[in-house]
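ok, trying the design again with the full structure, not the truncated one.
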């Protein structure tokens, strides 16, 4: 059932993303947000601290739970996206703002 919910939520968010700048899939972002809400972290401010949690990274499905292989240099040591990434994904309706 979890996989079905995850796929249904991700379908409307999928788009043409600049793969050279993508470090986190839409699926990973949705799963992480759902886990955060489930654990009582509704506020996105908590997610910056959670970026360093290797167990959450594994639960989300990251192959590299430490973030040492991150696509972008600035994201090294962070396996998960920060609050800004999650916020853009949730709130931006325009493609140009969603994938900066």
């Amino acid at each position: 059932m979890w996989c079905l919910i995850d796929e249904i939520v991700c379908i409307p968010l999928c788009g043409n993303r600049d793969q050279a700048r993508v470090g986190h899939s839409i699926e990973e972002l949705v799963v992480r947000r759902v886990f955060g809400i489930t654990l009582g972290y509704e506020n996105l401010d908590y997610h910056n601290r959670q970026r360093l949690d290797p167990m959450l990274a594994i639960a989300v499905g990251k192959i590299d739970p430490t973030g040492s292989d991150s696509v972008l240099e600035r994201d090294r040591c962070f396996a998960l996206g920060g609050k800004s990434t999650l916020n853009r994904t949730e709130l931006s309706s325009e493609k140009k703002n969603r994938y900066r």
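Keeping the full-length input from now on. Residues 26-98 form one domain.
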